[in-house]
Amino acid sequence: DIQMTQSPSFLSASVGERVTLSCRASQNINKYLDWYQQKLGEAPKLLIYNTNNLHTGIPSRFSGSGSGTDYTLTISSLQPEDVATYFCLQRNSWYTFGAGTKLELK
Amino acid sequence: QVQLKETGPGLVQPTQTLSITCTVSGFSLTSYYMQWVRQTPGKGLEWMGFIRSGGSTEYNSEFKSRLSISRDTSKNQVFLKMNSLKTEDTGVYYCARGGLWAPFAYWGQGTLVTVSS
Hints:
Distance between the termini of chain B: 39 Å
Largest interface: A-B, 20 and 17 residues
Radius of gyration of chain A: 13 Å
Number of helices of chain B: 0
Largest sheet of chain B: 7 strands, mixed
Shape of chain A: globular
Mean pLDDT of chain B: 96
Strand content of chain B: over 45%
Number of strands of chain B: 11
Shape of chain B: globular
Distance between the termini of chain A: 36 Å
Order of helices and strands of chain B: EEEEEEEEEEE
Mean pLDDT of chain A: 97
Number of helices of chain A: 0
Low-confidence stretches of chain A: none
Number of strands of chain A: 11
Oligomer: heterodimer
Radius of gyration of chain B: 13 Å
């Protein structure tokens, strides 16, 4: 089974700051990596699919990159509404979620 | 527009069977894979299994022995049944649309299941 490790587990950042979240797979996942945002009490919401494709309606301040085992979600200018937990999901071999990064405002 | 909604029992006793219904609208179950994902305090988000657009199923080996996914296309409903429930199965259960090489683009709001006597 593929394991997904997200870092950091918790991140505090200021409005307008550039934020980078990481996800590492235990083996090559061929860019089948998605990012989801989950706000308190809500279902996860797709942000980025296949490493770097922005889902419909998602603001362009969100972007993704990576290859092989290492992937990154970047928020170019953090907004108050971005406070949430962010999960990665690999779809290369069945499906495995990361444990999440909780993002808060400083 | 695409909508998914889970309906579950809320409270289930240990050793009993969980049944959840996902009712969808805005698309046909015969055109998309449907997934079941749960979120528990102990293990976070876990993929449970899916039913293909053609009706066949695949399950996470963690649940394979006690999980069943089925559907009624005439009612636009997908069903999850899991037996031998334990307190560790307490969590929020989601249905989502997506699969094979497609992301989970649409999710229901989730249904909270508490396993307790």
